[in-house]
Amino acid sequence: xxxxxxxxxxxxxxxxxxxxxxxxxxxxxxxxxxxxxxxxxxxxxxxxxxxxxxxxxxxxxxxxxxxxxxxxxxxxxxxxxxxxxxxxxxxxxxxxxxxxxxxxxxxxxxxxxxxxxxxxxxxxxxxxxxxxxxxxxxxxxxxxxxxxxxxxxxxxxxxxxxxxxxxxxxxxxxxxxxxxxxxxxxxxxxxxxxxxxxxxxxxxxxxxxxxxxxxxxxxxxxxxxxxxxxxxxxxxxxxxxxxxxxxxxxxxxxxxxxxxxxxxxxxxxxxxxxxxxxxxxxxxxxxxxxxxxxxxxxxxxxxxxxxxxxxxxxxxxxxxxxxxxxxxxxxxxxxxxxxxxxxxxxxxxxxxxxxxxxxxxxxxxxxxxxxxxxxxxxxxxxxxxxxxxxxxxxxxxxxxxxxxxxxxxxxxxxxxxxxxxxxxxxxxxxxxxxxxxxxxxxx
Length: 443
Prior knowledge:
Number of domains: 3
Helix content: 40-55%
Number of strands: 11
Order of helices and strands: HHHHHHHHHHEEEEEHEEHEHEHHEHE
CATH class of the largest domain: Mainly Alpha
Largest sheet: 6 strands, antiparallel
Radius of gyration: 26 Å
Strand content: 15-25%
CATH architecture of the largest domain: Up-down Bundle
């Protein structure tokens, strides 16, 4: 979370500093509502386009940024907060444009006389000046479209397939807003460091938007496979889908995930790869039957169906300096640990590992498989069934593993559950950097 917070705050503060430097004279001379309105329209516009540009860049999943942000789950969490920030800043921008007009219409404010605009000597700026009316009009409609599309993305009640279809339209909205920003940004700012920074951000965002619109996201990391086996574990409501890849796959590490497309109309869903890589092209996905789509997988899929797999992604890699590890897999969050145990069974790393699997649902066959994997990997498993043992808490974990302060802790499961465990362990002496939590969520 610190990486996400630092990245978002750093972007906002960096753009603020550049804008302040570019407009220091105007800020010191500003007096009255309309001069400040002009400045705040520009400021909110710069910040809004800045965060939306970075959000657009993150949406195309650039591999070079994943390592810097410590995993695609962190990238998508940052993408989400950038989208929310963009929405808030766009609303502020819209209000700065319109609220003074409303006050003038209500008779509460008097608009000062407006003199002629300065004649531009640069041809491109003269052209931009002639397009101001168009840029203002399309920008307003793009703002309304962005509000609707971001709301669909954030409101979980909208089915995933609608989110998947409509979210791509934001690329079109973004390109319209780029036109709006380029035409209406203060011409004098383009020759300052602010102009250089904004030009780079808008260019990067434009390229990313085109990549999205032409459906080229992750194109070099995609492979085609066929469904080899489908099994439904009724006790835990999990689909076990085995895929045999038909073309080249770079391999994956335990804990990584892939975007899997079983149905082109539904789009790609992120699923943890629940098998170690043995070079044979086989991938296992354990998929919880939670929504309308995943509940129908067992009946909809059959051996021989084509599958598109994009990846691998993620930095949930079980690395760390400590020779002691504690794993916590809550519910379907057990999946990365299954892959890791399979890998350790072939290639032990000498670490001492305790695995806590807490679950509200029981499937004896699935639990027996998990126990076999743990024995083969030399992992000490602690099974906690909610109805019998209660929900795992920090006190129980500390009591079961006396040397827990020396361990690296790896958690995969509900975010709030992980946050509670992190707070408890850190409060009792675990260094915060030793608690590793998967944060992935598409929305």
